[in-house]
Amino acid sequence: MGIVFHESSREFHLYNHKVSYIIKIMENGQLGQLYFGKRIHDRESFGHLLELAARPMAALQQDFGFSLEHVRQEYPSYGTTDFRLPALEILQDNGSRLTNFTYESYRIFGGKPVLCGLPATYMEDEKEGDTLEITLRDKLLNIKLILLYSIFEGEGAVARSARFENPSGKAVWITRAMSMSVDLPDCDYDWIQFSGAWSRERHVKVRRLEQGIQAVSSTRGHSSHNHNPFIVLKRPTADEFQGEVLGFSLVYSGNFLAQAEVDTYNVTRVMLGINPFSFTWKLESGQSFQTPEAVMVYSDQGLNGMSQTLHRLYRTRLARGVWRDKVRPVLLNNWEATYFDFNEEKLVDIAKAAKEDGVELFVLDDGWFGARSSDSSGLGDWYANTERLPGGIKGLSEKIEALGMKFGLWVELEMVNPDSDLYRAHPDWALQTPGRTSSQGRNQLVLDFSRKEVVDCIYDMIAGILSESKVSYIKWDMNRSITECYSAAFPPDRQGEIFHRYILGVYSLYERLIQNFPEILFESCASGGARFDAGMLFYAPQCWTSDDSDAAERIKIQYGTSFGYPVVSMGAHVSAVPNHQLFRFTPLETRGNVAYFGAFGYELDLQKLSEDERKIVRDQIAFMKQYREVIQFGTFYRLQSPFENNIAAWMSVSEDKKTAVVGYYKILNDVNCEFRRMKLKGLLPDVRYLVDDKKEWFYGDELMHAGLVTSDPSSGQAYPGNHCTDFWSKIYVLKAQ
Ligand code: DGJ
């Protein structure tokens, strides 16, 4: 395994036992793309995979007699003989945008370098994989382009990024710099994207890839509810369990573009990176620009195989810190319990009841600071409101810890209300365009995090509270998209940098906080799931998946999210009925059965439940404590999709495969229906498993091939006392005997 360079053919082959990635230095000095897929034997040359043919209407490069339009490339540019959209574009002082980056040198080394100021996957030592660094140069401009490729031992994954360096003596303007581009030889794929809106994030959308451009993107300053910086190409015959699947995931939280362009020869160009729309980066002489990282995954084990690779990689080599490998505390968050209507006494009463039922962490949500009595004031004033909390956060956190629980706190550090002391003192600290009206979202403006002094001031305020109080968890919220994006601190020719500089500022604040408060568990949030992306997981190992806490909706949201992100990263809570987003009633058991598959918690006042319901809650918490290791760190399989069926199912299997937890969800009740079975996955075929409620054992192969019998009373004549309801569900626990 490793990376080899074949001198004679001038080809790089990156491979491990799962995947091969092959690049060729072409005759014109540019890089050609030969192969990305299942591992193949290494050989001196794969040059035959670079096919050339005379084609009518081709524009030929003079010296070489070949056209870039017809070769598959690695990091293409536009304007010579390729007419597809490029990976890069650089505006020069003479107005030209042409570039010609040709090979100069390479370096291969063990391990993986950090990307300064940016989130990225990592290797803990140099035996975990290898990195290839290819340096190209545009000789006319004297600009260097360094392409980085890291391959992880044992994983079907390659991480990529690009860096531009300018030693030329004069400035250029980068207007497009994708993190990755790959030309695949055919287009026989289904394209899958994860799209939605507030409260229905990451719904699975599938369509056949066709000639032309298909893309998803964000222009909102954050990755967004609407689309996710993650796409999948799967062979039409592939499914959850078998067949070829490619996943492309961007480790970035700002404006992005994920695109596949299929040309008329059916070559598919996939690219992923910062959205070039509205982006310009002035690269002064002596400076460099590093793109975010993109992760490319190949699976020949279907969609589950691709997801499991991303889950392992992101859980263990993207997430960091003391919480990376720890099961997550069962929490109770007061947001849906009180909204802004609370005082210290009320909070302590809610916490006491939570403690009685086994909750480990009490989280105080929005409303604890400044003059915050509604969402129209206070953001930016990060000091406790002592009318509500006489002892401040320090006093409240000590009271919560005295109850035997940990204490967590909500913040929204990137925002400011015009009605706040911070805004009154620094009106120019908000992103706003001179002479234009500033649009508000939720009565707030976005702070200019491209400015270090703004980030420093926010850091000082929040670090003060964290230093004096007992805070074990932070929920970091972000509740609006960016409009009128313009920074008072930067000159006109740098305004195209502000969206990216903003997110770099967010990352820098996160980094400072996690370095200085390493014990704190961070959960990111953006009006629910508007910034659920791989970039955030580098700083916060879990994310509030959606503001929609309705169990039936959550099945879809968590199912869709699981394609790209690990179960443990999904904040998932049981909330009250009628549900506050859908006004729907679902059984308390089902609300728990869905929320188990995530970082589990409650979003209600337990004092308002009946004794019978409290008993259910106590049992749920005990169950989660017993099985969270398996659920949060086991191998996760999607079994049946809520987007295609009335019944959805998923399961987690422990590393030793001796314990499994299956979640089985029936959305609407049915009557006199078929007998049902669910084929399980990932078990040991020769081992006997006891399925708890059946009081009977089954061999693993039987459960995987004949299936687990899941027929319920609706397969027959239902009668009072023996029936299901709408939104009925069941958890099966399997234990090897
Ligand atoms: C949006 C979040 O997603 C909610 O969970 C809650 O924290 C509110 N903001 C508070 O304003």
Question: Brief description of this entry?
Answer:
Helix 6 packs parallel to helix 7.
Describe the structure.
With 737 residues, the chain is an alpha+beta fold. The chain is 19% helix and 30% strand. The strands form seven sheets. Strands 6, 7, 8, 9, 11, 12, 14, 15, 19 and 20 form a ten-stranded antiparallel sheet that branches. It has an eight-stranded parallel beta barrel with strand order 21-22-23-26-27-28-29-30, surrounded by four helices. Strands 5, 10, 13, 16, 17 and 18 form a six-stranded antiparallel sheet that branches. It starts with a strand and ends with a strand. The mean pLDDT is 97. Bound molecules: (2R,3S,4R,5S)-2-(hydroxymethyl)piperidine-3,4,5-triol. (2R,3S,4R,5S)-2-(hydroxymethyl)piperidine-3,4,5-triol binds next to loops.
Which key terms come to mind for this protein?
737 residues, alpha+beta, Beta-galactosidase, Chain A, domain 5, Immunoglobulin-like, 3 domains, 19% helix, globular, binds (2R,3S,4R,5S)-2-(hydroxymethyl)piperidine-3,4,5-triol
